[in-house]
Task: structure prediction
Amino acid sequence: MPTLYLQHGSYLDHLTPVGHPERPDRIRAIDRILEHERFQVLDRDQAPRGDVEAILRAHPAAYVDMIENSSPTDGLVRIDADTTMSPGTLDAALHGVGGACRAVDEVMAGRVSNAFSASRPPGHHAEANRAMGFCFFNNAAVAARHAQAVHGAERVAIMDFDVHHGNGTQDIFWNDPTVMYASTHQMPLYPGSGAASERGEADTIVNAPLQAGDGGDAFREAMDIAILPRIEAFKPDLVIISAGFDAHTRDPLGGLNLVEADFAWATLRLMEIADRTCEGHVVSLLEGGYDLEGLARSVAAHVMTLMKS
Result:
């Protein structure tokens, strides 16, 4: 079976201020590299527009209303210091949610081997009641809840290797024994959360912080020792990857020194766990990655690995 690649033109219509790192060119860079001949076997489809019911499984109605009511008809509206909405932002965010849910549907139904949804804005900083860090709706959290509500998944594991800690995902699942959130990230760095001592009420939060300057060896050691055994022991019915590529050595927003081979290695290890625990059910959702070359090369390595299933 093929790997599913989900995209949508609305992602280019989420506009940010001039010079902002989370910009439409990120999607263009991914599209260009995935047009290469070696990716022609991908199953390509458009991400549908997500519905509010799916979002409400991760965010309260008052928060969703606030985001909808903040959407401008022209210009930019600032939600916080680095998070802004343009007239196209809400539609892009809804298609991001829809792409995440569609990826879960196709993978859980066994119609594809796995899936990668390349959407923007990203999601992992969005807390239940707060937009921040370029994020509005938490795509990974919505996807996990969708898998549980629609496909009967009892346990979902979310692995986040973005350079920034996914405080939003941790916030949403802090008290939930049915969802494991695991993260490698640089610390200290925005948003300031993600200490190893942050374990959640049910010991299902696993943080393995790295230091500025750390490279592939430290990353792989953290994965091998702190994270991968915990995910496998959790026996998830679905593995969701919050696939941020800003831990790449070229990225301007972080200080880690990962390269494409490190992302490919992590992807393969997660796929191996999924093969042993949940029939290979893996859904990958784009998070960060702000150097266009580093992002494109890393996505290529990540997707090429997914295609090996």
The first helix runs from residue 25 to 34. The chain has a mean pLDDT of 98. The beta strands are 3-7, 43-46, 77-80, 83-85, 114-117, 156-160, 179-186, 205-210, 238-243, 282-286.
